[in-house]
């Protein structure tokens, strides 16, 4: 067991804040795709999208390893899910990733699922104002960390003849945004997803990605609280006039990791409430209003 590794049985969970998430998603949905008996590793599983993925995978029967640099929070999440396990993981350190990969396989069995959710954000600064140290850190976590995680776990899956990897990309990797480190890093995740899918396809390993839109994670909430983001403006920029809940992204990840997606590899699935399709309408006066009083007054947040 690596330093900081722990099962979820000995840690008290912290309260989870669900503010600003879509109202209809506060209750756990019916689970359909079974992942019973599979080992799943979620990097960045201590909060946000990673935490939601850990919870959804566990609800579908997987034994989940919550791997995160925030060890206390990882232990809290692991404690709160069935058969949860926590381990400290810094995705910027190759030796750390290899150690965790070896430990999981030795102690719990070979992982069948990897979700790479560890990531950091950046302020929307002009390139001449963005410190190169910030750029380096974002790329180290969001691009290099995803690649290192994929290689460490994917090579083991390939040798065993099967597995599923789901990378957390972003709509920022598909459109031009003033995020000069984060957006190129996420575009790289989309590219490496395609390359690794081709590389390991004949070894039975599927590699896909999801591209979330604006998701009300703790990181985004902090930006909102600091006055750096306007949630109403973010919602208005999507076709569905709302933000995305972490649970919606998690369900897409669980689908791609399941046998229901057995013939799907190399894709990037947007989970963005229609943000990608809405932007081009601004040149034509914007999106038309709801026909039947929908939007936020019709059950949306």
Radius of gyration: 19 Å
Summarize the biggest pleated sheet: 8 strands, mixed
State the helix count.
Answer: 9
Q: Going by CATH, what is the homologous superfamily?
A: NAD(P)-binding Rossmann-like Domain
Say how many strands there are: 8
> Would you list the SSEs in sequence order as H and E?
EEHEHEHEHEHEHHHEH
Gross morphology is globular
CATH fold naming: Rossmann fold
Distance between the termini: 43 Å
How many domains make up the 3D coordinates?
1
Q: What structural class do you assign from the helix and strand content?
A: alpha/beta
Helix content, binned percent: 25-40%
Describe the structure.
With 301 residues, the protein is α/β, with parallel strands linked by helices. The protein has one domain: 3-Layer(aba) Sandwich (Rossmann fold), CATH 3.40.50. It is built from 9 helices and 8 strands. It has helices spanning 48-59, 71-79, 94-107, 132-160, 182-200, 218-225, 231-236, 246-257, 275-278; strands at 6-7, 39-43, 63-68, 85-88, 113-116, 163-168, 205-212, 268-271. An 8-stranded mixed β-sheet has the order 1-4-3-2-5-6-7-8, sandwiched between helices. Helix 1 crosses helix 8 (246-257), helix 3 (94-107) packs parallel to helix 4 and helix 4 runs parallel beside helix 5 (182-200). The longest helix has 29 residues, at 132-160. The radius of gyration is 19 Å and the shape is globular. The model is unreliable at 1-28 and 297-301 (pLDDT under 50).
